[in-house]
Fold this sequence. Notes:
The chain has five helices and no strands. The chain is mainly alpha-helical. Helix 1 packs antiparallel against helix 2. The longest helix has 15 residues. The relative contact order is 0.15. The C terminus is likely disordered.
Amino acid sequence: xxxxxxxxxxxxxxxxxxxxxxxxxxxxxxVILTADHAxxxxxxxxxxxxxxxxxxxxxxxxxxxxx
Length: 67
């Protein structure tokens, strides 16, 4: 994976954890769409390996209210 692609995905992940989804998509989408087949597979593996980072890193507002 190109270093610029990894930087974009890492930044998008940071923004996602901050609930800044629109900005995350604006950063990640262009690199995902322009990736060739091999890099696309690397991106897919990177995302799959980190799915719990996005889903479980911080409690949701609803779970905070229930506590």
